[in-house]
Amino acid sequence: MRKLCLEIGANGLVLPGEPKLATQLGVGRATLRDALTRLEAEGLILRRKGADTIVNTAAFDLAGRIDLQVDFAEILKDCGFASNMVVLEGMPAPLTEDAAAALGIEAGSPALRTLKRWDADGQPVMVAVDWVPLFDSPVPSDPSRPVFELAAELGGEQIAWEVACPGAVAVDGAIAETLRLEAGSPVWTLERVGIGRSGRRSFFAFEYHVPSIVQYGFIRSLQRP
Q1: 3-class DSSP state for residue 109?
Q2: Closest to 90 (Cα-Cα) out of 39, 139, 18, 23
Q3: Which part of the chain is CATH 1.10.10.10?
Q4: Which of 5, 103, 136, 210 has its CA 20 to 30 A from that of 95?
């Protein structure tokens, strides 16, 4: 539904009225309104009572939205790359001081640590180091699953929010080797903390992204009186 709505509006600034749009998409009016509400919340359209529904065509320039939780493999596919994810490590490990501080628990607590690399057309483009507290749970048999799924299993509750902070570093050591970059090469980073429905911090992830592969950004909707 989301993709079809945007495809219809991609070549123009205005979506058809709800009756016509519902017919084009083959859905009911209630289903359509729910979809339009979600699109507006994502900053992709603007609806005004008694006026046209405007499409934010500039949104099509952003392949990666850092304000939305989207699987990185899907972002690469949307950019036209053949995507592949490799689990390089996936084992129990004591929380480092940085990971423990981000999670608000004691350093050295048992956790699942995973190291994953994403490739685009065979070229490494992102590495993620993920930490999930074990909370006395057994280690999952499949560490390749997304970190928010692992955190929901180990923490016993669904992830409700994710706080993400972008940054930049010069990589060296194992991360530079894993990304096949020279030591000191600049990359942009994304530090993510997942929060469960109870408010407990359920995972900490640190991502290293090779710049210029994917254009990242976010959309801000201006507050209207």
Answers
A1: coil
A2: 139
A3: 2-61
A4: 210
